[in-house]
Amino acid sequence: MTSAHTSGVVPDEGEVVTYERRGPIAVVTMNRPDYRNAQNSVMTYALDAAFTRAVEDGEVQVIVLAGNGEHFSAGHDIGTPGRDHHVRYENKAALWWDHLDRPGGDQRYARELEVYLGMCRRWREIPKPTIAMVHGACIAGGLMLAWVCDLIVASEDAFFSDPVVRMGIPGVEYFAHPWVLGPRRAKEVLYTGERFSAAQAHEWGMVNRVVPREALATETFALAEKICTMPQFGLALTKKAVNQCEDQMGLRAGMDSVFGLHHFAHAHNAEVGADSLGGMNAKSMKTTATPSIVSDGGTR
How does DSSP assign the chain, residue by residue? Predict the structure, then answer.
């Protein structure tokens, strides 16, 4: 894990990401279960170190990303004792100045370019197949982690949402919504902030497989083992081929443009209100959560 360099007290939570080898499969697990695996910078850099370890291990064929506890990930850390936006870390994803001593929007842009957009793009380019093993909540920043993986296997109890429009912000930083959901579903998910189920995610093409909770690990590792039988270099080239085609369909350019809108929204919030998050925090985001979207267009 990349260490912090300057001031800022962050509680020692032990291993916030664990790494395990199961034969040719590397299992990377988020390990902040008390906070529903909310992502602070400590976790971000620990994830990056684990992914790097798996890439550099020639015997690893497939990487599985999981979450410990009741949920995959509730998103970015905007309110736990371990929130560490005030700490300096060595940049790994973006060739940009450090955020810590920068004022206003400069600080916010520099940090999010590194720990959110930059890291997700870096992980999307991992040259080995990656599978997100999703259960429980996969919210906002949790979506970003699942979306950078090549495949998603979800348990029947998994649910998804990107509710940040409640903050006046047009979606999370890694804005892949129109590509993974399609434009109309993306608008519905964003406009309403409502949850959608694993079954709906499968119907919309976002999730590869939906399985009972008790079979999630078994089914995920069976899929990983099947992929492990393919030649490693062939898999790497195939992944690059699909990613390149997706970029030709506008993913990267679209994401760049929306990242600018995202930060314009932050700046607007800070100018007209109390803070860059539109006065929202983890508690208010949870209490204002709306019912789930259902396939017939109603709610539940």
Answer: -PPB-SS------S-SEEEEEETTEEEEEE--GGGTT-B-HHHHHHHHHHHHHHHH-TT--EEEEEE-SS-SB--B-SSSTT--TTS-B--SS--S--STT--HHHHHHHHHIIIIIIHHHHHHT-SS-EEEEE-SEEETHHHHHHHTSSEEEEETT-EEE--GGGGT--S-SS--HHHHH-HHHHHHHHHH---EEHHHHHHTTS-SEEE-GGGHHHHHHHHHHHHHTS-HHHHHHHHHHHHHHHHHTTHHHHHHHHHHHHHHHHHHHHHHSSSTTTT--HHHHHHT--PPB-TTS-B-
